[in-house]
Amino acid sequence: MTLARRMRDRLSPVRPWFRDSATMSWKADASAGLTNATIVLPQGVAFAIIAGLPPEYGLFTAIIVTVVAAYWGSSRVMVSGPTTAISAVLFASLSGLAPPGSEAYIALALVLTFLVGVLQLAAGLAGLGGLISFISHSVIVGFTAAAAVLIGVSQLGPALGLSGLDGGVLHRLSQLAAKSSDLSFEAMVISAMTLLSLIVSTRLSRRLPSYIVALAVGSLTAIALGAEAAGVQMFAPLDATLPTFQTLDLQIDTIGTLLPAAAAVACVGLLEAISIGKSFAIRRGETYDSNQEMVGQGLSNLTGSFFQCYAGSGSFTRSGLNAESGATSPMSAIFAAGFLSLLLILLAPLVRFVPVPAMASIILYVAWKLINVSEIKHIVATSRSETFILGATFLTGILSGLDFAILVGVIASLSIFLNKSAHPLVAVGAPTEVNGRRVFMNAETFSLPECPQIRFVRVEGPLFFASIEHVEREFRRIEQKDGVKTCILNLKGVGKIDLAGADFILSEARRARARGYDLHLIAANPSVLKVLERLNCLDVLGAGNIHPHKSDAIRPAVEMAEDRVCKSCHIRCFNECALKPRDQTHPRQSVD
Fold this sequence. Notes:
Helix content: 55-70%
Strand content: 5-15%
Low-confidence stretches: 588-592
Largest sheet: 6 strands, mixed
Radius of gyration: 31 Å
Structural class: alpha/beta
Number of helices: 23
Strand order of the largest sheet: 4-3-5-6-7-8
Shape: elongated
């Protein structure tokens, strides 16, 4: 399929899921959409506050971005919209450029969203979906944990009735400690009651509109305490109930300033959406196209930027609820946006009764749920390299900024990946018996006896210009053993070989023959064999020195072994050694 046709298909308004319209359960989709709308109503407000935007912008994002992403995306049940992580990155990126909530700040947020959409759409049309898999999962875990800490610390002041706290995590905590005598009793009671009701209703049923219940409890508590008269801050009425079209101020200087932050937000958004979409597709046995999802996310943010929306992505909470509620197609997300518009019109006048501490406690709960404690423990217990990536991303996010944390995490991931690629495993193997089967294992690690005349070397990893120095150094290290007549080089674990790798094999073949022994290769990968043939390695080695299986290589190597040495050898580790003469005073010890 040509690039032009792929681009046309990805942008076509006629989507593949239309073909199932005859069998769709529209009733189930409508029911799932209504449930989703009740959940996102308070969530949208909370996420907009995290992003430093007026509350209605989170709700607008949950309408426009949700519809476009569902329509052009690849997942049948994923619901997109405002998310905690992107809200935190947006705030961290823009708060130093303009006061949060100001007109200048809102204008920057919309331009940033436009750039995010352009970058995501371009990546999807270019077919770059596979690159996402190169970013370590630990980057997202560390980034999300850092975002959760930043969000949580930012809401401690409002939850406790304190104002005027600003700066980073450490600065905010020091300010909080200095103002501890100014804590508001009413605010703390409202926060505690809201949080308690949220936890209880969430545990009772995931289908309950837990956030709305919690806000109602917080609002009633505020009324009972006379909180507004006591100085507890309440939400201002929404300026608008539905999004409207607005043009953007796309100046070159502004674009240049926002482009690095837009790249970070675009990356975070795609990682969120694709990981969520893939997980649900696997769980439900459905197909999933990462590039199409990138197109859907890009179009949703690009369109949303003209309708008072800020950058959105896939929401795991809303997607999980959507699937559990019986959603069968993207229509469920479209229904959710429609129901949210209706709820927004009906409930907008009630926003002024919601106390700020109640919303702050909900955001604290969301931040806590963001930290995947079990996954962090698993990473720390199983991999030092992934632990380093997680720690570098987390600490950078806390101490420097979330947008920079993504960059540090990606660089750390790529550095470790390149380092591992440049240091493939080079080990001498020897046969042994495991559960009645003859297998080759690392002779050095498991202290296995080796044949005195045959060296069996295995390479696991790419054999290319960056790894040759390491591989050659390992070859010289294991070359200390004398009396070797044949070296068998097992390349079945080599997935990539380039000119430098082929030159190394030729060099080893010439070195072996100059020292009076021979080199045999085990290679079955067609791509590796093709490279070896194209670079004349097969001509130098000879067709008889290339083998598809271990036994095919061991047989001629044993034949070349000196009978004099074999006769006195008591190891006889290969089955083929049975054909060699042996001293009757030594029992046979071959491995079957």
